[in-house]
Amino acid sequence: MILVGTSGWQYRDWRGRFYPAKLPQRLWLEYFAGRFATVEVNNAFYRLPERDTFVAWRARTPADFCVAVKMSRYLTHIKRLRDPAEPVARFLGRATGLGDRLGPVLVQLPPNLRADPDALDATLRLFPTDVRVAVEPRHPSWWTDATRRVLERRRAALVWADRLSRPVTPLWRTTDFGYLRLHEGRARPWPRYGRGALASWVRRLGQTFDDAEPTYVYFNNDPGGGAIVDAVAFAALAARAGRRVSRVPAAGEAGPGDATGPAGG
């Protein structure tokens, strides 16, 4: 199944676009989880929540909800993958409070961190085999066979990333699940994605993963509610292509725009 969601759910400009104007912000997670089956939590990157917060998120979401969690920047941007044991243990000690709601762990590397496959391997081997890990390198030196072998050996997914409606990563399949992040489209209003760009990603995923394998798709173009509208448009295109897709809001709940998205790239 393709699981479609957004990178975060607490954006003030989504009030009145996606969230009802009078809905208290403390109930936004419940509202979101009733309309999407997954979310990617980015704020853990900046400040890792306490375990009690993760436990509370589990209690507030339905049994089929899935939370992908971004690894703390302490490991990736401050330690830069050095001495990973303590940061990984601390992260897992808290994030596993989600229990069966815990989805993939997103490890996003700094754009100026050059390739170090050995350091990546030392980090990935610390994760239990039942925790999915997706890695998003952002320096071009990572695009080597050595990197790919580490990901395959540790059964970690290479994050497929898009910016300005184009892939910015190789489209490697390295394990039995996929992970796609869409950061910024080229359609109007900015930073929306157009039908052509979304259809291209549906096609790429379909050529690489089947419905028996989970593929996580997160829209990170949140300004103006663009992520909501584009997630709904993407899900409609995927369903039209015969793919199984997780729940998304009805087109009328997505805000300005419609389920087919804007024209253009």
TrEMBL record:
<dbReference type="InterPro" id="IPR002763">
    <property type="entry name" value="DUF72"/>
</dbReference>
<dbReference type="Pfam" id="PF01904">
    <property type="entry name" value="DUF72"/>
</dbReference>
<dbReference type="InterPro" id="IPR036520">
    <property type="entry name" value="UPF0759_sf"/>
</dbReference>
<protein>
    <submittedName>
        <fullName>Uncharacterized conserved protein YecE, DUF72 family</fullName>
    </submittedName>
</protein>
